[in-house]
Amino acid sequence: MKLKQTNNFIDFIKDITKRNLGINLRKLSVMNIELFILYIPQITDKDKLSNNIIKPILQYNKDIDINIHKIAYSIVYAEDIFIDNDENKILNYILEGKSVIILNNDENYLVANVVKVEKRDINLPEVENTLRGSKDAFTENFDANLSLIRYRIKDENLRIENFKVGKRTKTNVAVIYIGDIANENYVREVKNRLKKINIDGIVESGYIQKFILNNALNLFPQVGLVERSDMAATAILEGKICIVVEGSNIALSTPKTFMEFLDSGDDRYDNTYISVFSKILRIIAINIALTVSSMYVGIVSFHPDILPE
């Protein structure tokens, strides 16, 4: 649906500003043309908005008439911009944190990504403690988590496919894998299950974990938790799929096998023989923990005759 008349712009802008959505309206006048910038101040980088968009527009003083394409290609300094003409998408763009620039005499509008979300710094891992492994753990920032994986895997076959899950939260979910290593059927199945999720909101990766399991009542989950970027990169290099969820500091790794739950964070960095010996000790310890108590009760209560005098 294209906006072709001035009244359509004005009516649309008035409607948005009257709905108490917390959207700010910045009105500019350049060469007798009215220009409107819509944005949410709490999640907008105001310095970028002012210096890279508003300032160069106001300083434009050439004889050529200003329009959306002129603004996009010759005026603003923002690096992540695109042009659209669908009126129904404007509100969604604004709610995602993007700034929308509208001219009253143009059927197109400009979308600039100047999102800024407050986030904590990358800290030490709390769940996956390690002696020799990396100390950078995922945070709640979506782009920061993706950058940690990109930093470690520089393969041209690395695939990062983005989905929006949740009818109201529209949470960004990234499915990360290496195209020539991961099983195509499994990748397709994971993506299909993500597309079928029908829920109001996703606020943590645990929501995704429940929806992509084969059976929620299964004693051994098929999806593992990943807090460290090096463990996520290792899983991807082994052909697994890593799922990063916006707003969560825990990523998901799938498929997960039982023996992987016995891994230690330093097994991949220690001497091979020591790592194998440590894993064997863990297996023995699990068997002892599961059987010795019951064997003791059985012998003392039901077969005391096998005890020495």
TrEMBL record:
Transmembrane segments: 280-302
Gene Ontology annotations for the cellular component aspect, listed alphabetically: membrane
Xref: Pfam families: GerA
GO biological process terms held by the UniProt record: spore germination
Alphabetical UniProt keywords: Membrane, Transmembrane, Transmembrane helix
Domain of life, per lineage: Bacteria
Record PANTHER family: LEUCINE ZIPPER PROTEIN 4, SPORE GERMINATION PROTEIN
Entry's family note: Belongs to the GerABKA family.
Identification of the protein by name: GerA spore germination protein
Protein source organism: Tepidibacter thalassicus DSM 15285
